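Hi Q.,

Before the meeting this afternoon, I wanted you to have the 2-deoxy-2-amino glucitol-6-phosphate prediction in hand. No need to reply - just skim if you have a minute. The sequence and ligand are here:
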Amino acid sequence: VTAEKGGFAHFMLKEIHEQPRAYRDTMLGRIDESGRRIILPDLHLTDEKIRSINNVHIVACGTAFHAGLVGGAVIERLVRIPVMCDVASEYRYRSPLITPDTLVIVVSQSGETADTLAALREAQANGAHVLAITNVVGSSIARDADDVISTLAGPEIAVASTKAYTSQLIAFYLFSLYLAQVRGTQSAEEIAHVIAAMHALPEQVESILANVDAIKAYAEHIAKHEDLFFIGRGLDYAVALEGSLKLKEISYIHSEAYAAGELKHGTLALIEEDVPVIALATQESVLEKTVSNIKEVKARGADVMALTHEEHVTDLLKSVDQAFAIPKTLPILTPALSVVPLQLLAYYASLARGNDVDKPRNLAKSVTVE
Ligand code: AGP
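Predicted structure with the ligand bound:
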């Protein structure tokens, strides 16, 4: 069994460590040799069809939905098409406004999630082109979709999804750049610049994985708590949602993720002495705003940990109890790095609580029934 886990104590830890390889494999053959263009040779979507898309729906469940939130924000930023993200169990029952010019993207590691499959069928019945981002080649979703971008994460065994999520992010980056290329919404230089930064991601993840002691110690600290909060703005908020879900599902610590600006509309009432707050502060354009939210919780006695870039650590330490730095990349690519310490945090917190890391209570790897 340890051999299956490649010498790691759990599948989850093994899969966290496989991420640099999964990033490389998911990019392989999808970037041309010059490193300046995206090539998606298997795609049926024609350039003409891509130019006619006037809105995008991204539909998924759980962690795949969280990857969709990042993907949606990136498409809006790079391609300037309106994007709507929804969880599949809501989407399928609310008669979504789908037209033949809607591109529907469904995201699923297993390719077998019942609600996501039903959402795909609803979209096709309304004439939309459906693109699936999935990790299992022969799965029901991969078979039924009009187009597939496979993530090449390899089999994911742990119930808590890690490498599938980050590979989904890579797939979204590639596809967003491809749309931008076809629609001409970004210059060739800008596209080459993002691609170059993507090539650096695997090594940057390796550097995070080489220094886990501080995050492990922090996980042992939060393992003693029953409630905690994640806050962030923009893409940091999307990653906060994923960090919170990961922590809940395997450590059983109650946690909630909030868009930092929403705190004062209710949740701030729950902040009292020593409540842990994990603040994601990687997005420069809203950094100052996040810092003022950090000060609000600090003033109520919260115990704040900030996740940021090295250059902001000294400054942030004036307002927080501790800070962890992640390597620097482009703001849109930051989720592919910032989620890694949060995966490790969930892993070590679960371990500290003596839980079954790979098989958390009440959960199945693939939800094939409603
Ligand atoms: C992730 O850690 C969860 N176990 C869960 O949210 C999962 O992402 C969700 O059930 C969707 O699964 P899928 O990607 O196989 O469709």
